[in-house]
Amino acid sequence: MENLLPPIPAKRYFTIGEVGELCGVKPHVLRYWEQEFTQLRPMKRRGNRRYYQHHEVLMIRRIRDLLYDQGFTISGARNKMQELLQSERDKRLVSENTLETYEGLDTPDPQPAGFAEPDTLFSADLSDDPWRQVRHELHEIRALLSPAL
Questions:
Q1: Would residue 126 count as lying in a domain?
Q2: How many helices (DSSP H) and strands (DSSP E) are in the chain?
């Protein structure tokens, strides 16, 4: 059912009416879900007007999918959301630990005394060096694992 929902525009904040249209849920249902799902906390401004951020719209779509499409009860959906959030935290933690392990890859390899840098010895392509290739691949993996901002 999520495929039938409109794409989320590139905005910083969404009103409750906009979120209702983006997620196919009425505003009073969103207010009720705020009470039931503690993870859902939109920012409130003047007169208790709610402003949702992009990640909250995605969370509402997940909740909607669990309740309407997969047939979860409120309690079951709440537990499932907690599991999903915990697994995302665990993935982030593993990613951060992996990055810390490979932090030393940014530093250049120490050269023995009396040896010139490889690129000054000959003008060959440095991609022939297998360690440089491995280092490059690890940097690409790190970029993939880094959380997008």
A1: yes
A2: 6, 3
